[in-house]
Amino acid sequence: MKLALSLLAALALPWLSSDEKPWAEILGASRAKPPAPASEVKWRDDVRAALAEARATDRPLLVTLRCLPCKQCAGFDAAVLEGEGELEDVLAQFITVRITSASDLDLRLFPVEGWQDLDLSWWGWILSPEGRIYSIFGGKDHVSDTTRISPEAFANTLRRVLEHHYDPRRDAWDVDGPAPELGGKSPTPLDLPGAESWKKLGAPSLKKDGCLHCHQVNEVLRQPALDAGKFDKRRDLQPWPLPENIGLSIDRDDGLRVTKVSAGSAAERAGLRVGDRLAAAGERKLFGQADLRGVLHRAPADVAKIELRWWRGSELQRGQLELASGWRATELAWRKSIADGNIGAVPGFAWPMAAKPELRRKLAIPAGKMAVTPWFGKEPKTWPAWSAGLREDDVIVAVGGESPDLAVRDFMAWFRLRYDPGDEVVLRVRDGRGREREVRYKAPAPGKQ
Q1: Does residue 257 sit in helix, strand or coil?
Q2: Who contacts 166 (Cβ-Cβ below 8 Å, separation ≥6)?
Q3: d(CA 404, CA 370)
Q4: CB neighbours (10 Å) of residue 187?
Q5: CB of 279 within 8 A of CB of 309?
Q6: Domains of the chain (ranges plus CATH)?
Q7: H-helix segments, 260-356
Q8: pLDDT score, position 14
C-alpha cells in the first residue's frame, strides 16, 4: 500500500506552478512528425522488453490489460486485437503489449490505485519509452460497457498521444510526470500489504489457475483498512466519478468534446459551454475522457477544487471546478469488488435471486417492493440464514424493515453497504402459502459462513 500511495503522490505533484507552464503551447497545435507506422501490429507479452524496444525506436508504449474470464468489454477487446476501423494504422505506431493477469503488473509502471478503475476487465496504459504515463483509456458505468468507450474513442486518444509524443518541445514541457525507477524485483499486487490477509478469504481463481482479477486487486488494496477497522464505506467507496458528477456530458467517440453542461453544476460555474473541447485538468494534459475521470478519481474525497483548461474555438479558456461534499457519488452495484468482494457483510445465504413474476403475483407482493428468493448453493447448512430457518422456497420481502425492489448484484451491493459482520439481520419472509414470519441471525463476513 505504501508503495502504491507514494507512486500516486509523486505522479500527482506538479513540477512547476500552473502559471509557469506554457499551457497554450502545450495544449495547442502539435509540431509532431511521426514516423511511418510499422508494417503490422505485433502484440508482445514482456513489458520490460517492450520498454527497451520503445526506447530503441522512440515509439510510445501501449499496454492493454484484459481479464479474460470476465465477459464485459470482450467485444471491445476483440475490436482492438483485430484493429477494427481506424485502429490498425494507429496501433502500428505503438509498441503494443497485452497482459492477461493483474498478478503480472509491475506497480512502478502501473500504479493502479490512482490510475486504473479496477472494476473493469479491459484497460489501456499509454506510456513514454521511459515509462511516464501519457494517458489511460477505459471506462464503464452502470448502463453498459459501451457507454464510455468505443474503437473511435480509442483511436482519437492514441492519435492525440502520438501528436504529443513526437512534438519536439515535449521534453521541455515536463508535464508527463517522472519516469519510474525500475531496478530490482518488480513489485506486483500480490506484494501489497493486504494480499496475504485477502487470500484467507478464499481467492478461488488465484488457487485454481494463478489468475488475479482486476477487481480482486481492488479488494487487496482495501484489505489493510478493513483489517484495521478503518475502512469507511461512505468515504472510501466512490471511485472513478463520471464527467456527469461535475455537470458535463462528453461525446463518447470524440472523448473531449462537451455535449451538455448541467444548469447550476460545478462545470457551469467554472465557465464551460456546449461545444467546448477539454484540454487539461489538475495539471494533466487530457487525451480522452478517462484522463479526466482519472483526475477526478485522484481528487480529494470530500470538498475539492480542480483547475480546468479547455478550447473554445481557437481560444484557450481556464476555470476552476469547486466541488461540494458528496460530489463523487455514483452507482456502485455494477462493481464486482463491492457486490462480490470484501466490503461489509454477506447476507447469510449464497445469492439473492429475483422471485419469478408468477410467484410475486401469487404472494401479492406489490410492484416496486422486494421479492427475493435465497439460493444456498451446495452446502446450505453452512449458512447462518439456513440455520435460522430460511429456505429456498421462501421469498424475502424486507430486510431490516426496508423493502426496495432489488435482487442479484443490486441487492448484494445494497446489503454490503448497510451491514457489517456481526450485525443482526432481520428478514421478513413469506412462504409458499403467503404466511409471513421473521428470520433473525448475525451477518457473516465475506469468505466466512
Answers
A1: strand
A2: 30, 32, 33, 34
A3: 5
A4: 15
A5: yes
A6: 2-230 (3.40.30.10), 243-323 (2.30.42.10), 344-442 (2.30.42.10)
A7: 266-270, 289-298, 336-339
A8: 38
Q: Strands, DSSP E only, in 203-350?
A: 248-250, 258-261, 277-281, 284-285, 304-312, 315-323
Residue 291 to residues 7, 136, 181, 285, 287: CA-CA distances in angstroms?
17, 6, 23, 8, 6
Cα 183 from Cα 180, distance rounded (Å): 9
Orientation of helix 151-165 relative to helix 74-81, angle to 10°: 50
CA 399 to chain centre: 29
Measure the CA–CA gap between 225 and 247, rounded to whole angstroms: 32
Contact, 60 vs 128, CB < 8 A?
A: yes
Q: Which of 275, 274, 277 is nearest to 261 (CA)?
A: 274
Q: What is the pLDDT of residues 385-412, one digit of tens each?
A: 999 999 999 999 999 999 999 999 999 9
Q: Which residues of 317-351 are buried (b: 16+ CB within 10 A; e: fewer)?
A: bebebebeeebbebebbbbbbbbbbbbbbbbbbbb
Q: pLDDT tens for residues 17-53?
A: 445 889 999 999 999 999 999 999 999 999 999 999 9
Distances (CA, A) of 364 to 8, 48, 392, 432: 53, 62, 18, 11
β-bridge partners, 285: 280
Cell of 394: 421462501
DSSP structure string for 64-80: EEE-TT--TTHHHHHHH
Q: Rounded to two decimals, what is the model's pTM?
A: 0.91
Give which of 177, 198, 38, 183 is closest to 102, Cα–Cα: 198
Buried b (16+ CB within 10 A) or exposed e, 36-45: ebeeebeeee
CB 30 within 8 A of CB 163: yes
* Residue positions counted in the chain: 449
Q: Give dist(CA 445, CA 449) in Å, integer.
A: 7
H helices of 13-132, in order, are 23-27, 47-57, 74-81, 87-91, 112-115
